[in-house]
Amino acid sequence: MKSKPSKSGADERVAERSPRRPFDREAGVAVAKDLFHERGYDAVGVAELTRALGINPPSLYAAYGNKAGLYERCLEIYVAEANLPADKILTPDRPLSEAINDLLRQAVRLYTKSKAKRGCMVAEGMRADDPQARQLANAYGDAAADFIEGYIKRSQPHQARKLADYVVTTLQGLSAGARAGRSRARLLAVAELAGQAFETFLHTSDESKNA
Amino acid sequence: MKSKPSKSGADERVAERSPRRPFDREAGVAVAKDLFHERGYDAVGVAELTRALGINPPSLYAAYGNKAGLYERCLEIYVAEANLPADKILTPDRPLSEAINDLLRQAVRLYTKSKAKRGCMVAEGMRADDPQARQLANAYGDAAADFIEGYIKRSQPHQARKLADYVVTTLQGLSAGARAGRSRARLLAVAELAGQAFETFLHTSDESKNA
DNA sequence: GCAATGCTATAGTGATCACTACAAATCAAA
DNA sequence: TTTGATTTGTAGTGATCACTATAGCATTGC
């Protein structure tokens, strides 16, 4: 009867937190995230992960379920760490083209911040051979694309999708360029071009759409 | 004495052409090319290749050296088949922006021509996990980028690299979009935007650069 | 016919893949 | 101290990786 939910409330809290500390799951996710970001989902094996985390395979599976589960946690904190805080950049109070321009430039800075971890972890994950990993990354990628499209739609409802596609395509190209080793300066120049192009789209669209 | 170079000259020609037909190397390359294009270098194993070619592993290695060697042949004919005849599109007799616009649109058509073989085989190969395959693809990618930059430099010597980077980045984004399953119509819209953007770059650059 | 040539298929190489069965070890609660 | 729960390390699962040693076999020139 009272076997499960008996005793005091404090016990339940303690019971939830594992009687014997496993190995710091959170830190493990951070380490794995760097590995996945640096070399991609497929190229990082479980053996290398366990070596990097200082644990053995059974601990990894007990903690995260499987390799894809760990990757999911990595994606989660990668996005949550606000590496590219789209919600902070795409704010309703600033001009659309200025916000997009800022987004592109900040993306380049992020993609080229680390020499090892080049490009966008989500965008690169969408190209993984493993279908499960690809699906996980796609979820975040689609969410980001929807967010951008929704933001554009506020001021440009007629061609929001086309413009959002342009932005997303540019971001994917910038991520690929970063991964290929193109320098930050050159990518920033491209981002600036794309940003100033975006501004012209709004002008020309106003003319044609109002006609 | 007369054992080796005796007899008639016709024999030498026949002797060169393998006494027993191997298995049609050329056709094998074409089949392998489709597989590599469809699923990427890493995802296609030697076992699957030999199955698709109707041969056994030793024949593959005797014919192409190794998996990377076969991939190299595939890349070669992929590019040579003029899937995207840049030299036919980027001709000196047409306006720069028109040529670039055409290049982008034709690229989209190519990237979305087959439902299975999406994107650019070279651009996608540049992301392979295998360093050898990556290097092979990079060679073709760099050559294409240089060709584009050289073409732009003819009419825009000051900012050819920046503009070429923009075009290459857009192409990579389009390839990624095609691989992600984005429709031809949407990608064509993006290509058109990028093309019309490219034209504005020339105008604005003329003003600022001449000052 | 007879050896030489050259491609073929059978079978298997060690390495690595993601993943797990099992039992020792450690903790909490009784 | 005993019991029960849980994580740990050891060791190994079958599968697949790229690749190859060996030998059979068909065709060639003699």
UniProtKB/TrEMBL annotation, chains A, B:
Alphabetized PROSITE patterns for the sequence: HTH_TETR_2 (PS50977)
GO terms assigned for molecular function: DNA binding
Residue ranges the record marks as coiled coil: none
Signal peptide (residue range): none
Biased composition (Basic and acidic residues): 9-25
Claim: Lipid metabolism is one of the keywords in the record: no
Region ranges (Disordered): 1-25
Protein name as annotated: TetR/AcrR family transcriptional regulator
Provenance organism: Vreelandella sedimenti
